[in-house]
Specification:
Distance between the termini: 23 Å
Strand content: under 5%
Shape: globular
Structural class: mainly alpha
CATH architecture: Orthogonal Bundle
Oligomer: single chain
Number of strands: 0
Radius of gyration: 20 Å
Length: about 325
């Protein structure tokens, strides 16, 4: 019930913000602005689905921003060299999967703390990309690269369909598949999960690899918005993703999170900057407001955990 209460509180905050915008700045709801807002937050939404699984297992991945940048540049260079766009997207996904699998293997099988592993890969990938590109953007892209050659309206509709399908698939998998239950079990009590026969190492490897694949796919879908690809893409992306999952009600120590909460967290945090602009408030307040929301979400989460432990203790004593 606590998880649903958190989702309800985030949904209420979104509704209140939208009500204020509807009264003061109805232009916020124009088709063009909503399309731009969706495309700008699409990478966060897609990667946050994978991060939800990682956090459910009690791990963290702060390398997704660097993986996103590397996959974006590789997709752009491949397209410039004449590779079909479908293969460019596949290559980005495979590269992201490889990066995620490396993180997952080190965390799951060698038992290296995930914060240490992903910090190392974040720095190595970012600095390696900077050395390889010398900070140059990827240009001279083929004509059909931008918007996948479909035009912005059709491309936007296609991406909306892809994101909705991914959200539905991850939510369904967590709820109905045995693999989803094993993810929850790994984060709730890893030792107990092993006793009942769950290979928690394989679960950790799988969620990291899946998050890498989602990061690569998001990188490809984001890259085609431009006719040049910056080599410094994804700076701070990992913090946006983790913050959205936390605001959505995930327990950072693992075992509790919902896809619906993650989606609401992305919507709330992703809407603030544009909302401030339409309300005539300086955009410099965006980070401060987001930070306040994140701190409030974590505080509520801790209070909820303490109440549950207190209630469990009282119930145990009563027996």
């Amino acid at each position: 019930m606590r998880g649903y209460a958190r989702e309800a509180s985030v949904a209420l905050a979104i509704v209140l913000m939208m009500a204020v915008l509807a009264l003061i700045a109805p232009g916020y709801f124009s088709r063009e602005n909503l399309a731009d807002l969706f495309l700008a937050n699409m990478p966060v939404m897609v990667i946050a689905l994978g991060m939800t699984l990682i956090i459910l297992t009690g791990q963290i991945d702060i390398s997704v921003g660097s993986v996103f940048a590397v996959c974006s540049v590789v997709a752009g260079v491949s397209a410039r060299n004449g590779m079909p766009l479908v293969l460019c997207g596949l290559m980005a996904c495979l590269l992201g999967t490889a990066c995620g699998a490396l993180n997952g293997a080190l965390v799951g099988y060698l038992r290296v703390p995930s914060i240490v592993v992903t910090l190392a890969t974040m720095v190595a990938l970012r600095d390696g990309l900077r050395w390889q590109t010398q900070g140059a953007w990827v240009g001279n892209l083929p004509v059909n690269f931008q918007w996948l050659g479909l035009g912005q309206p059709i491309y936007t509709g296609l991406v909306v369909g892809i994101v909705v399908a991914l959200v539905a698939l991850v939510a369904w998998g967590l709820r109905y598949l045995r693999a989803g239950r094993m993810v929850f079990a790994t984060g709730s009590n890893e030792q107990a999960a092993r006793i009942v026969g769950i290979d928690t190492r394989r679960i950790v490897l799988a969620v990291f690899a899946l998050t890498g694949a989602l990061t690569g796919g998001a990188a490809m879908l984001n890259s085609v918005r431009f006719n040049q690809i910056p080599s410094n893409l994804g700076l701070g992306l990992e913090m946006k993703v983790i913050a959205a999952v936390a605001v959505g009600g995930a327990t950072i120590t693992g075992g509790a999170a919902t896809v619906a909460g993650t989606v609401l967290g992305v919507i709330l945090l992703g809407s603030i900057g544009t909302a401030l602009t339409f309300l005539g408030v300086s955009a410099t307040w965006e980070k401060a407001i987001q930070g306040g929301i994140i701190l409030g979400a974590i505080a509520l989460n801790l209070l909820g955990e303490r109440r549950e432990k207190h209630a469990a203790t009282i119930e145990a004593l009563a027996r």
